[in-house]
Amino acid sequence: MNTYLLTNLIYIVAAVLFIFGLKMLTSPVTARKGNLISAIGMLLAVVVTLLSKGIIDYKWIAAGIIAGSIIGAFSARVVAMTQMPQMVALFNGFGGITSLFVGWAAYHVMTAFDLFTTTTVFLAVLIGGVTFSGSLVAWGKLATYISGRPILFRGQTFLNGTLFIGTLVAGSLLLMNLQNGYSYSYAIFIGIIILSLALGILVVIPIGGADMPVVISLLNSYSGIAGCAAGFAIQNNILIVAGALVGASGIILTNVMCKAMNRSITNVLFGGFGATATKGDMEIEGEVKPISPEDTYFILEAASSVVFVPGYGMAVAQAQHTLRELGDILEENGSEVRYAIHPVAGRMPGHMNVLLAEANVPYDKLVEMDDINKTIASVDVCVVIGANDVVNPAARESKSSPIYGMPVINVDQAKTVIVLKRSMAPGFAGIDNNLFYKENARMLFGDAKSSIGTIVSEFKKS
Amino acid sequence: MDAITCSYCREACLISMSMVLILAIFVGFEVISKVPARLHTPLMSGSNAISGITLVGAILAAGHAGDSLTIILGTSAVIFATINVVGGYMVTDRMLEMFKKKPDGGEK
């Protein structure tokens, strides 16, 4: 059989397997099998590509695949679940750089310059470059190699706009000079690569740490779109299909995250949210009432329903295992225990779910925000662990608050709220939280893991 | 290789690729919007793995005998894409393995 035909038939099979794999991800029961099916699709696509006629030299391919497999397998095994956001950010970047290189290689060997192929190469390089450098900045922020605070300077929007227009101008120069001397166009092409890398960095540095769930979702989508453009450039259908699936997934997640913060995507990208601590004009009444772990034990011991609300602080303190232990003890004690998850808790979509799953919390104990809010008034004790902005009642009460209108978990409506917190420092968005001053709130200061550990040992003593 | 086959039917090829793109976007939205919030992290790492499909393009670039720049670009692209594929699928599997119903709540 004609290899071209065979290759493309196998690509169709691979595309079907990708779609089935994603479809099985709709339930935790089938998800693991779905991931395997998707991986089989990938294997088929790669093997059939290796067999294609155009390949003359295998030694570099083999070297690359071996090196990549070792690095990939190693990092997948050692990465801690708390570090998943960094890993995903880095992988988004790798997707971007691959598209950039594939586009560049396609341009480098191009003999007949036609408008269509050059346009798609331009897009693959531009989107790939932005994805790569932007993801590296996001990775640095998430891994705290660079400050998570937004980096803002005067004329930033103007500079970004100028760079973006500059890239488009360079792109049109490239397209208009298809016949004019190779070296001239090539210089423009290299210029485009540099501009796109600079653009990626500048677009992500003004975005604060708390907005990272949106940014990595968006970059996830870009890495797919870049792959799509590369697929058009080398005229390969499987790249187009897979790129479109990833692009769609990233856009859906971006949308979910934006909705959960009640912000538009433009506001996230250009808002520089959290650069300065904003004080709402709302009068904060009452005072902070600290509580000791021992007293917390008495409250929890008497509670018949307990809801834990984890946030990024739980990930930082690595408190998920101790928390699960406390949850088990409370259940044995006869309390109803649930875990309420805000969609943007943590640094990436679904971050808290993964951490709690790692700690062996059964997923049917995890409740989404809208469901818990319906019944929160009947909850005896809400325990907030390292979450801040996602439980801030200012989102409901204070019209002047920057987070006004954001859906939050209404923990202040529970009978008692215990907030585990390191200190009184404001959360990532830099907004004061009047939850801490409410009549029914108690503050348990200190490291979340050791505080919960003390409560657990109190239970064991009795 | 594909490019040569397509060169004499450029318009038809462009149209069919665009058709593939549009349909894939619709299927993607339809399927992925049903993924529950609790599985969003595995969805992201899984889509990292799928975006490693550019490995196919990287292999074609690295395997064509070209000058040293093409080989460098192709080989680097193969490395990065393979990291995405292997790392993405493995870490997703590791995560999904933890998503179990554990009625006994016992230690692993």
What portion of residues of chain B is helical? over 70%
Distance between the termini of chain A: 76 Å
Mean pLDDT of chain B: 85
* Helix proportion range of chain A: 55-70%
Q: Tell me the number of strands of chain B.
A: 0
The tally of structural domains of chain B comes to 2
Strand order of the largest sheet of chain A: 3-2-1-4-5-6
What does this structure look like?
The complex is a heterodimer of chains A (462) and B (108). Chain A has 462 residues and is α/β, with parallel strands linked by helices. Chain A folds into 2 domains: 79-270, no CATH class; 293-461, TPP-binding domain (Rossmann fold, 3-Layer(aba) Sandwich), CATH 3.40.50. Chain A contains 17 helices and 6 strands. Chain A has helices at 3-24, 31-50, 59-78, 84-108, 115-142, 156-176, 182-204, 212-233, 237-261, 265-270, 293-302, 312-317, 320-332, 351-358, 369-375, 394-397, 448-461; strands at 305-310, 336-341, 366-368, 381-385, 416-421, 441-445. The radius of gyration of chain A is 25 Å and the shape is globular. The termini of chain A are far apart. Mean pLDDT of chain A is 88; it is low at 276-281. Chain B has 108 residues and is an all-alpha fold. Chain B folds into 2 domains: 1-34; 36-108. Helices cover 75% and strands 0% of the residues of chain B. The longest helix of chain B has 31 residues, at 68-98. The chains are: A alpha/beta (462), B mainly alpha (108).
